[in-house]
Amino acid sequence: MALNCFFALSLPLKKCPRDQLIYDCIMETDRIILRPWRDSDAPALYQWASDPDVGPRAGWAPHQSVEESLEVIRTVFNDVTNTWAIELKETGKAIGAMGYGPSCDCKLPARDNEPIVGYWIAKPYWNRGICTEALGLMLEHIRKTTDIKSLISGHFVDNPASGRVMEKCGFVPTGETVIDETQYQGADRPIRVLRLVLRKIRITAIRKASYPDLMAKYENPIEHTCDVQEGQEWISIDGQCPEGMCPSAWGSMREFVEALARGEGNFYDGWMKNPMSAMISCNDGFRPVSFYIEVI
């Protein structure tokens, strides 16, 4: 359970009708579905959100009625592009919330255009990995559908379980703690701040060569085709191997891509005009391909 920061956010998403947005924003795993909240979820929301062990851990007061829960669905959980109900497939019921939004009224040291992540899950489902699963699912969606560069979140220091969820999904403590007296029972409860940096790295095949005379002279005949084309591009997210990347080429560049994803750079002591870039070659026999790698 993290801070209750589910507010609307304008970010670069597909422009399409609401029904299409709802469809595009539904995600699922084997156990859960992330989907927009519905009015019919109000009784389930009240069942879980009225528990005094849930809301205060996340910075909001327990709900007092089904009507209050319905109002929250309609006014706080109403943006289908960035706020979801966590539905357990086994029961078909909403058991928690997952979302992200701008710096709203949570007093976290957010950067410009850095959304805050917030979530909570019903007490009967604690310690089952569901919240980590849901957060990971939302982060995958953010990576694929937005140009967000980083996310920030926080948890009350007396609720370390929420911090473990964040860290399992890649968030890193910033070393800061803050007090937000606007949160329910927040006046004397420090909030530990964590951040996740999302980096997209473009890999471009800038030159491809082959030396048939040397192949004929030194190599045994083999069935080998290199389908990489000059100008071909791939996108690595957070240092992961892009889909469709040649394993041999990835092996040659992986160290550089992962370093760029960590924010490291300047590999060649100022040789490259862009310090957050690198150039490597994949030497597949006498068929070298040169790749340019850059943070975008």
- Beta strand %: 25-35%
Sketch the topology as an H/E string, one letter per element: HEEHHHEEEHEHEEEHEHEE
CATH architecture of the largest domain, by name, is: 3-Layer(aba) Sandwich
Residues in helix, %: 25-40%
The CATH superfamily of the largest domain is known as: Gcn5-related N-acetyltransferase (GNAT)
Report the sheet with the most strands, covering strand number, pairing sense and barrel closure. 5 strands, antiparallel
Contiguous uncertain segments of 5+ residues: 3-18
Based on DSSP secondary structure assignment, what is the total number of beta strands? 12
Which of globular, elongated, flat, extended, rod-shaped describes the shape? elongated
Q: Which strand order do you get reading across the main beta sheet?
A: 1-2-3-4-5
Mean pLDDT: 87
* Count of folded domains: 2
- Helices, by number, come to 8
- The helix/strand class is alpha+beta
Task: Describe the protein's architecture and organization.
This protein has 296 residues and is of the alpha+beta class. The protein folds into two domains: 18-197, Gcn5-related N-acetyltransferase (GNAT) (Aminopeptidase), CATH 3.40.630.30; 200-295, no CATH class. Helices cover 26% and strands 25% of the residues. It is built from eight helices and twelve strands. Strands 1-2-3-4-5 form a five-stranded antiparallel β-sheet, sandwiched between helices. It has a four-stranded antiparallel β-sheet with strand order 10-9-12-11, with helices on one face. A hairpin with a 6-residue loop joins β11 and β12. α2 (42-49) crosses α4 (66-75). The longest helix has 16 residues, at 130-145. The protein is elongated and about 80 Å long. Mean pLDDT is 87; it is low at 3-18.
